[in-house]
Amino acid sequence: MRHPILISLCVTGAFALSGCEESTGNNVDRAFQDVNVVDESNLNDVMLTVADPNEAVSYFQRATNEKPDRIDLQRGLGKSLIRAKRNTEAVTVWSKVAEHKDATDEDRVDLADALIRNNEWDRAQQTLDQIPPTFETFKRYRLEAMIADSNQEWKKSDSFYETAVGLTTKPASVMNNWGYSKLTRGDYPGAERLFVDAIRQDSSLFTAKNNLVLARGAQKKYSLPVIPMDQAERAQLLYSLGLSAIKQGDTAIGKGLLRDAIDTHPQHFEAAARSLQALEENVSN
């Protein structure tokens, strides 16, 4: 009579062991799944920062095709398209992101950024107007300032730039943009001050250095400012200043600056040499 009981215990034990194995297997699967999520997150970050922009686009395109509902992957694709300067495609992707059920105000700011890069200023303004004023970020105000510039609303532009500068620890680029705004309005002293501030924040920002020279040239200040520059940069700045002098009608000064640029450049400075030759031929004729 004991045999059926023994068999029953064995069967029960077998089922219990099977259950343990199944439970252990599920735990292992979950563990591997967690590891994969971490690895994917790290890979996404790599693709968004150090990878070739077009390789990143291909990666996120494959990922979004496999998981079309993942808004984080769609964001990755949109950012990669911006890095690759494929702005028309970026607008399409960010428009889709902005319509997603989990979209945020930050996503709508990124859509406005893509629209501005694609020269769709009116639609960018409409997009920003839909975002509540309580959403205050550096990027939002920088874009608001650029749109105000495009509409020649200078008071609004200055206000937005000032707010944007206060919302970032790296204001050099927005100071440069603000300075360029002042330059286009003809406020050359104001532009000069902002370019100097931008260079003080980031001495590697060559666009601010070149803009500073243009602002000084517009005021007929034909000496290079005291700012950090290497030999090649110095030659480029002399060239810009020379062209500015010629534009102001100070041809002799301009020719001298072009010669200085040619002599200063560590290599042959084709653009400056060509400009000087054209200028001298025009004078002789």
From TrEMBL:
<dbReference type="InterPro" id="IPR011990">
    <property type="entry name" value="TPR-like_helical_dom_sf"/>
</dbReference>
<dbReference type="InterPro" id="IPR019734">
    <property type="entry name" value="TPR_rpt"/>
</dbReference>
<dbReference type="Pfam" id="PF13174">
    <property type="entry name" value="TPR_6"/>
</dbReference>
<protein>
    <submittedName>
        <fullName>Tetratricopeptide repeat protein</fullName>
    </submittedName>
</protein>
